[in-house]
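Our collaborator T.R. sent over the components below with a one-line note: 'Predict the complex.' Nothing else. No constraints on interfaces, no templates requested, no preferences about which chain binds where. So this is a plain run: every listed entity goes in together, and whatever single assembly comes back becomes the starting point for the next discussion.
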Amino acid sequence: MRCKPSNNKLMVKYKKGLWSPDEDQKLTSYVMNYGHGCWSSVPINAGLQRNGKSCRLRWINYLRPGLKRGAFSYDEEEIIFTLHGLLGNKWSQISQYLPGRTDNEIKNHWHSHLKKRLAKSEHLQDHPKVDNTSSNLSSGMDHSVPPVSQTNSNLPKILFADWISLDEFQPDFGKSSDEPAAAALSHTCTAYQSNTNEHEWQRNEGSTIESIETRNCLENGISIEDMFHTQMTIDQIFGFDHGDFRIDDFMYI
DNA sequence: AAATACTACAACCGCAAGCGG
DNA sequence: GCCGCTTGCGGTTGTAGTATT
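Returned assembly:
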């Protein structure tokens, strides 16, 4: 996986701070045309005065196709709460279950929003109000701490094309510690058509068509076409056998 | 209108793991 | 086995925008 060490020992003064639109354009153009390959060589070849690490981060967190922008949905927050309870601060693993969201984005959202809501929730549990008005918290007006165990039917759907647009998506379902999370979500997530990302997917070559989820679908007799036009469970996509599992078993709040 | 405080998010830093020479 | 390098991850800091005083 590692590329050849570069001999770039020149004391290059790397630029820091926010990226300009011009830098974004250069990086995007380069990666789309040539792929990133070895990140340390990207800034050199792309004509950027950044280090490879910075380029990689910018691409993954901001420029990569398929990223969602904008506010987190209620369902997404629900997943984050659930997975954080299961996995802790394993943001990269959590991000695998939120297509289009980056670990950095989830981490930031956790620290700026969800952590406070969790604290608020715990406070309410420690100091429950006696009047009935407090029950309004879960009635929809206040979304502080999503009632994750409330219902499975309200849980999110996952865009198949979103999954495969993540160029390095490799869920570690084989690891025992992750299986509860995978199982939990496999019960609740379905893949469905995404015309917006279909073309994105079709542009990708090689690595994505060989991805584990694509292979599993093909081996199960599901055509590429069907992957976009058929609702499937995560089980079908990943060939995951979770046994008898209930998401509620793993709720922590 | 200006100053200050707060919030959200982008980016950096340090560390650990993996890999090839 | 050691060393140097790259990559990935999580914690932390910096910055810009917004709200409040």
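Summary for T.R.: Chain A has twelve helices and three strands.
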